Amino acid sequence: MSTMIHHLSIPARDTRHVAEVLVELFGGTLTSFGPYRDSFIAWAGDAHGTAIEVYPLGTEMLPDHGLGQARFRAGQPASPHVATHAAVSVDRSRAEILALARREGWRAIELPRGTNHVIEFWIENAVMLELMTPDMAADYVRAMAQFRRPEVIHGRLWT
Length: 159
Fold this sequence. Notes:
The chain is of the alpha+beta class.
């Protein structure tokens, strides 16, 4: 199996609404996130369990003092903007992505990233996802082939 990021988390002011918009974008499913209040998971519904967890702005994740799982606490959000972002392939057209952003009042703009393009999709105008349509994703994969390990051939890890 090759390396894959299965899920990531982002902050939001309106966690449920942001998760609902992501579910619409993915064509997936929404669930609550049990360990922490007002948190949700937008599941892509693919074979890999791909998801984005949405936590209230200012949420901090800390290691447990013992042998338990990570703990959560509400911090003091200094800014809704974060340096964390992700490039995400979606089965949507440019027009669909831009229309969804326009409906939400969120910034979305197609921009070059070297040899490929992405749509900067700004959730609540604060958190960026670099969305890629199928053709953009294909260009990205071709451009990034130069960084593959020698044993990775045709998307499979040969051992």
